[in-house]
Design brief:
flat, 3 helices, about 0% strand, mainly alpha
Length: about 80
């Protein structure tokens, strides 16, 4: 992989090291980081407001992240509706 990157840098010297990663990759990574953070924080907030159900063996019925992400997804889908 290093050889490929070194060859690419030789062919496109004006791009430098940052030319090895496209802006689309950085954008996708930032969207993923933001959604993960918001899902986790939203799930923690929801767990304080309404605690998650605990199954008979002691585990949560669903994860805190999943609960928060589903809540955010529900909000985003219903923005267009009056």
């Amino acid at each position: 992989m290093f050889e490929h990157n070194a060859l690419r840098a030789k062919l496109q010297p004006h791009l430098g090291w940052h030319g090895l990663c496209s802006s689309e990759t950085w954008r996708e990574a930032s969207v993923l980081k933001t959604s993960t953070t918001m899902g986790t924080l939203g799930g923690q907030w929801l767990n304080e407001v309404k605690p998650l159900d605990i199954k008979a063996h002691g585990c949560l019925a669903k994860s805190v992240f999943r609960d928060g992400f589903d809540y955010l997804w529900h909000i985003l889908l219903n923005l267009a509706q009056p």
